[in-house]
Amino acid sequence: MFSKESRRLVLAHFWVAFAAFFVALLLGEWQMYIRSPLRDWIGNPELYYRSVTAHGSAMGYVFPTLVAMGFGYAIVELALKQPLVGRRWAWTGFALVVLGTVVAMAPVSVGLASVLYTFYPPLIGHPAYYIGIVLVVVGSWIWVALMSVNLRVWKKANPGVAVPLPMFANLAGAYLWAWTSVGAAVEILFLILPVALGFKSTIDAGLARVFFSWTLHAIVYFWLMPAYIAFYTLVPRAIGGRLYSDMMGRISFVLFLVFSMPIGVHHLFQDPQVGAGVKFLHAVFTAMVSVPTLLTVFTITASVEIAGRLRGGTGALGWVKALPWHNPMMLAVAFSFILLGFGGAGGLINMSYQLDFAVHNTQWITGHFHLIFAGAIVIMYFAVAYDLWPHLAGRALVQDGMMKAQLWLWFTGMIVLTFPWHVVGVMGMPRRMAYFDYTNPEIAPQAITVILSFIGGLMLVISGVLFLLVLLRGHRSRVVELPEFRFAQAVHPVGRVPVALNGYALWLALMIGLSLVNYGYPIAQLVGLKQTSVPAVPIGGSPVGGTP
Amino acid sequence: MNEPLFSLKNRWFTVSVAAVVVIAALAALFAFVWLPRAHARDAAASLWDAICSAAGAPARYRNPGLPDERAVYPTSVIIGSEFTGPVDSVAVGRGATLALQCSMCHGARGTASAGTNAPHLAGQPPSSTYKQLRDFKSGHRPSAVMQPLATNLSDQDMRDLAAFYSQQQRETLVGHAGVQVEVPRIASNGSPMRNIGACATCHSPGVARVATPIIDGLPAPYIADQLRAFKAGRRANDINQQMRNAAHALTDQEIDVLAKYYASR
């Protein structure tokens, strides 16, 4: 069951997402180019920050949100096997996201809002930028509501039946996003917009940063959700195996919901406005997120092993050789796990209060989140698109070397991009810098690493082009009649599921309760402190051009 | 499927809520009691101060002996850039006249004679002398001798005196010349395990930090007395408790060794 109207809806989401992704990808590589010794200084740092703002906003707010939304709509029809309820609302949400993107990007593109996607108060850009972001978020909230409504409709029609894992996981992402986006929404509506609109001239930057941290960590888990849904419900089927445990999947998703929310203060380890005790509390819960992550790694590895053994692999490692390595989904999950491993190891360093001092605000951090998001997560977005595309377009996806080359290039390109970043970060190169003078003997040894990263970025651009080509060819190839779309089946068929793991009431209560415990005190204390506002720093006006 | 979720009979409910509460309570215990206790041991702060600091509540130092807002801050002096440039020769001249009333203890040209145990002022950075005079006058640094003497000085007087003394050369006192004392490790390396920084980090003639006196050659009883005052909290005009934190963990014997060493330089 996948109606034509819904397919069009999902395709619209995916195409806008991938278009935004590709533009942002080009901007990222341009940034790498002008930071490198390959290019003379462009003379105007504002151009660089303009590009970083567009890159971050498109990659952080637009691309993953649209992928999650599109994938979510597809899951409703494919997993619940019922027509999507509220399709017109879905188009309204989509329109809001697109409108928000345009409204936000207009001031960015003319240099009136080069504040980076994390907003950085007391920097204040053009109000249209923030209003655009709010529109994107409101559009995505419509999706959250629709996911909830569709599940309710299904539950009414299927009383007592276990919610299919894809839809259950989909709801985890939706609820997580609904709650975590509240932080940035409060920051924009109550702290930033009054200043951007000219009602106030000062802003409490410390409080604003705490609100942003509310969003900043769990948003990554929102980005992660489509990738994790693919791990559990697409990978085992695509490589000819079985999901090792449906129950483990449910437990992982509810744990993500509870633990990924109240931990954002680890982004503020170096911020003086938050006490060390609060930071410790958040570090403890950050460590707790490793529990569902490792549950997933073990469950998916076991599922892949089942596929290997079903294909005749034997012995301790023989099943690895027997895996279908020609299958894009197999390649994608292997690459994703490797990048997740490196990124996760770096993350453990970042979450350790003392070690973080050494890498704070260096290129190391940029390397870390590119490994996790642009690496482990985005590569699974590619795999999801490849898996769904024939069902969306109704045409065969040409299975030649291009898909595999694309995945290989993305994987190696991401390593060549981020490993030098980690090295140069430890050498002390700060992130968010527009210009480096490599003739200075102090930083001359860093020059080579930046050139390497530029080459890695170039590989990513080529991979991005190949990705779009594969999808475009998927609209022009021969029409196929496909069997019904299936999600992965568990080794033990899902029968009765405990009521706690068939809905979200308990986990939402824990998520909200824990958020209030971990954030309530620091927010209340900062709100109560007097004389904490600083003069806003307006960004924009005519940039001063010229060459040095 | 019809079992109630929010019920004590549902083990998913009880176990998951209990687990989250236990983790949160243990983490909070570590964050707000155990870690602050460990910190409080190494710094001159009370356990309550340490807990407030862990919670991010800005605790202000309160000097109970002082009224109103003067009690809140360790000093009321802000050292500006005017102290980093060359010294005005007119100020030096005025300072020389004013210094006539200080010569009884601090010597005619800023080197105290043996036996008075007053600190030498010759060659001290002007910001240092100025800050101490201001603190004496405001009461941030209590002293039965200096407080009445500083009361009648205007702000400009204090600047002039500081300028004058900064231009004088310290004379080597008989009895100190040529005495070699081994450099104590505390002075050169500090004691990292006890959270004591090296004295030389700030108190070296070459460091030239503002409002930081040169302690070379000061009388040993004076140095020892000041360190004990910082240790006991009797002297509290150091910004961010720098000296109180450094002196807090020093033993009596170490104080004597340091005083002797710096007096011999």
Please summarize what this structure is.
Chain A has 548 residues and is mostly helical. Chain A has 18 helices and 4 strands. The longest helix of chain A has 36 residues, at 45-80.
Record the SSE blueprint:
The complex is a heterodimer of chains A (548) and B (265).
Chain A: H1 4-35, H2 45-80, H3 87-109, E1 123-124, H4 127-157, H5 165-196, E2 202-203, H6 205-216, H7 218-233, H8 235-238, H9 246-259, H10 276-288, H11 290-310, H12 315-321, H13 328-350, H14 353-359, H15 363-393, H16 401-426, H17 447-473, H18 505-528, E3 534-535, E4 537-538
Parallel strand pairs in A: 1-4
Antiparallel strand pairs in A: 2-3
Helix pairs in contact in A: 1-2, 1-3, 1-15, 1-17, 2-3, 2-4, 2-5, 2-7, 3-4, 4-5, 5-6, 5-7, 5-9, 6-18, 7-15, 9-11, 9-18, 11-12, 13-15, 13-16, 15-16, 16-17
Chain B: H1 11-42, H2 47-54, H3 89-98, H4 103-106, H5 126-138, H6 146-151, H7 155-166, H8 185-188, H9 220-232, H10 242-248, H11 252-264
Give the total of domains of chain A.
1
Overall average pLDDT of chain A = 94
Please name the CATH topology of chain A: Cytochrome C Oxidase, Chain A
Please name the fourth-level CATH homologous superfamily of the largest domain in chain B: Cytochrome c-like domain
For the termini of chain A, the CA-CA separation is: 62 Å
H/E element sequence of chain B: HHHHHHHHHHH
Q: Biggest β-sheet of chain B, characterized?
A: none
Our count of domains of chain B comes out at 2
Estimate percent helicity of chain B: 40-55%
Give the strand order of the largest sheet of chain A, numbering strands 1, 2, ... along the chain. Answer: 1-4
CA-based shape of chain B: elongated
Oligomer: heterodimer
Can you characterise this structure?
- Chain A has one domain: Cytochrome c oxidase-like, subunit I domain (Cytochrome C Oxidase, Chain A), CATH 1.20.210.10.
- Chain A is built from 18 helices and four strands.
- Chain A has helices at residues 4-35, 45-80, 87-109, 127-157, 165-196, 205-216, 218-233, 235-238, 246-259, 276-288, 290-310, 315-321, 328-350, 353-359, 363-393, 401-426, 447-473, 505-528, and strands spanning 123-124, 202-203, 534-535, 537-538.
- In chain A, the strands form two sheets. In chain A, strands 1-4 form a two-stranded parallel ribbon. A two-stranded antiparallel ribbon of chain A has the order 2-3.
- In chain A, helix 2 (45-80) runs antiparallel to helix 5, helix 11 packs across helix 12 (315-321) and helix 13 (328-350) runs antiparallel to helix 15 (363-393).
- Chain A is globular, with a radius of gyration of 23 Å.
- Residues 542-548 of chain A have low confidence and may be disordered.
- Chain B has two domains: 11-54; 68-264, Orthogonal Bundle (Cytochrome Bc1 Complex, Chain D, domain 2).
- Chain B is built from eleven helices and no strands.
- The radius of gyration of chain B is 25 Å and the shape is elongated.
- The termini of chain B are far apart.
